[in-house]
Design goal:
Blueprint (H helix, E strand, L loop, with lengths): L2 E2 L10 E2 L3 H5 L2 E8 L2 E8 L5 H16 L10 E3 L13 E5 L2 E2 L9 H20 L2 E2 L8 E4 L2 E4 L6 E2 L26 H17 L8 H11 L12 H7 L4 H21 L8
Parallel strand pairs: 1-5
Antiparallel strand pairs: 2-3, 3-4, 4-6, 5-6, 7-9, 8-11, 9-10
């Protein structure tokens, strides 16, 4: 990927969207507009926070090596070293603005919801077959651009052949085995997807007050329920969130046929996994 050094914006036109915690660690996130289109500018300052810098550089490298990947937004890398405001920064990332993939579920038919879920499942599979785990799946990391599903935020990306020594994860989406020190796998990705989909279809977020409470929730207390008409997706959620990895693995192959039947026939209930 070519790195350009001509700023496509005026610095004073940038809208700062950086979260306070990220700001303290040297991260900067801005929005800007060019030719009636909206973009995001992502920057990491040097010599601020080792972990944030490493994660940012990992994402930079991934975009550089995988720029033509189907599930990636078109990305431009920008040299901002000549810009006074960002002279102590790594190369910046510019990405087009995209809308949330998980739009309001009540506005969608069963068939439309099944299509969205199947697309998400295929995107996770796609990265896995390339030898990667996204490793930080959240609902906001699935977006729609030009009518297609794209994934965002590859700072925690990991190779399936070379998992990191230290686990970094968001407790809300952690599979039970992660609380026991096991490495991330395809099946921890599927578990995270199950939690994302449950919160979307149930219209409420899971809650816990501490890391220990999250551990109890995922390892012992998780009990997913969906009201009609979304109960048809409960078998999918149960397959994705089995407490035992072997059970997730066993039911994994049933997910795509089940969703495809919903798409093709749009029946209220077809069969249970």
């Amino acid at each position: 990927m070519q790195v350009v050094n001509i700023l496509p914006f005026e610095v004073n036109q940038l809208i700062d969207m950086t979260k306070p915690k990220s700001y303290a660690y040297g991260r900067r996130l801005y929005r800007f507009k060019q030719h009636e289109k909206h973009y995001w500018l992502k920057i990491q300052l040097r010599d601020t926070h080792t972990l944030f810098e490493h994660s940012y550089c990992q994402e930079l490298m991934f975009y550089q090596n995988m720029q033509n990947l189907a599930y990636l937004l078109p990305c431009q890398q920008l040299d901002v070293s000549h810009c006074v405001e960002f002279k102590a920064s790594y190369t910046a990332l510019i990405l087009p603005h995209a809308t949330p993939w998980l739009s309001i579920a009540t506005q969608l038919s069963i068939k439309q919801i099944a299509k969205k879920i199947l697309a998400m499942l295929l995107s996770i599979e796609h990265f896995y077959h390339l030898g990667y785990l996204h490793a930080d799946l959240k609902h906001e990391h699935f977006v729609m651009w030009q009518g297609q599903l794209k994934l965002l935020d590859f700072e925690q990306l990991q190779s399936i052949d070379n998992p990191p020594a230290q686990l970094t994860a968001t407790p809300r989406y952690m599979a039970p085995e992660l609380f026991h020190g096991q490495p991330k796998t395809l099946y921890t990705e599927l578990y995270a997807l199950g939690i994302i989909l449950y919160e979307w279809l149930a219209g409420q977020r899971l809650t816990a007050k501490s890391y220990l409470d999250w551990a109890y929730l995922h390892c012992q207390q998780l009990d997913l329920k969906l009201d009609a008409p979304y109960a048809v997706f409960l078998p999918v959620l149960q397959a994705l969130t089995h407490k035992q990895t072997t059970a997730r693995e066993q039911d994994y192959g049933m997910l795509k046929p089940y969703l495809q039947r919903l798409i093709d026939e749009n029946c209220p209930i077809l069969f249970y996994i």
